Amino acid sequence: MSLASAKMNFMDEDASSGSGDDANVVDGNKHQPGIPSNSGRRKRSRKATGDAIVDAMLEIAAASKMRANAIVKSEYRFSISKCIKVLDEMLGIDQQIYFLALDLFENANARETFISLKNTSAEMDDFDLELDELELTAAAAGYHYYSSITKQPCHSLSPSKGCGFMAEVLNGHGVVFQEMFRMDKNVFHKLCDILRQRGMLRDTAGVMIEEQLGIFLNIIGHNERNRVIQERFHHSGETISRHFNNVLKAVKSLSREFLLTPNPSTPPEILGNNRFYPYFQDCIGVIGGMHIPAQVPAKDQSRFRNKKGVLSQNVLAACTLDLQFIFIYPGWEGSAAGSRVLRAVLDDPHQNFPHIPEDKYFLVDTGYANMKGFIAPFEGVRYHIHEYRGANQLPRNARELFNHRHSSLSNVIQRSFHVLKTRFPILKVAPQYAFHTQRDIVIAACVLHNYIRRECKNDWLFSSMEGMTVDEPPDVDEHTDIGLVSSVHDQVAFSMRESISAEMWNHFMNAWDQW
Fold first, then answer.
1. The model's pTM
2. What is the DSSP string of 282-307?
3. What is the DSSP letter of 472?
4. pLDDT digit string (tens) for 229-250?
């Protein structure tokens, strides 16, 4: 091939390359370009690569935007607020299903099932799927929605109604009121009157004191998140938070009034029971501890991790035999022993621990020392109630008999804790609040506990504990603080315990009918 033809072929190939430089116009005439240089080819290559990268980035951005829109649309469709709105619009829904559904809405799968059931047009009577617990409750709620049981008495709540959620609860069925606000209506109204008359709370343009207290009780009584309360009461998150803190401060300020001073006379619970009288006639109450889950900064977590490995605050409490709290001291690290907390309280007069009259005492469990004013069980001897069951249930000596009756009587502190946590489940979890707020919630809950006990002796939760025993070990260390024992060793307290156990055993040996 000649040089001229080769050159022509190269020019033809280059001219059809589609680069966009196939013609240069000079004075209106077209001229074929010469052979392109290496630098020109590199420039075109970089430009083509750059264009490709830009196109790819635009495609990625468009795909990402579409995906984000799809996620947002999906999240809104199955959001908690959307589910609550649908639930509140239902007629005739069973009360138990309503509250179960609120808890289940924390689960994304349950929300999707619930909304899907609402939108389907299938006949619910033929609904025959294998469902787990979460989906089954959502299905039940969906079934009630389609069934529209309007002929039966309605004890449900509809926050979206025009009359408002609070108005409907206040005027609605008493059982629903108890479930929502954890107390009877008359007790609730009396508490509102106290807070209003003493100026502890005030009505605002949009939120009356009744609603402020209702918000607070709904949160601690169901451990509800702020966003759920927003939907239920139709207020902003800031409004919910502000009124929660205002009520918390007001209720806490009632602690000096509602945390009782121990009565020096013999409690009727002892007088009326010959298993305890006259042996414990000088007992004025029981002291114990409980651990409440806590949220603390990372730097403090080692101190707040208890023996079970759970982050908690150690709460020291004293109560009467009538299930009312005398003293409450929250906020200690979960790793602190109960005896250490008690020693700190007794050494600090600013803690206002109640005065113990002469010759009177509190019962304490195995985690505390036996000393003046505090009678503990015998160490190294079975103590807890469950240890006296089965073939070896009868006590074999005076110390075992003393420990069994001591445990039976001091079980009142565990029953008090049980009622407190059942009424206010926020105490069973680590709430998302600053630690000082977590501590104040414990105090406020105990104040409300005592207030309800004083105003409503037949309260359903207190009534459920009559004659019952909470058979679970206390949340304290089983080993006494040795330093406390040696430093405050009191022979009088030990002699008193020996005397009580000897008298008890003597009577027991002569009256086997009751032990």
1. 0.69
2. TEEEEEEEEEEE----GGGHHHHB-T
3. S
4. 999 999 999 999 999 999 999 9
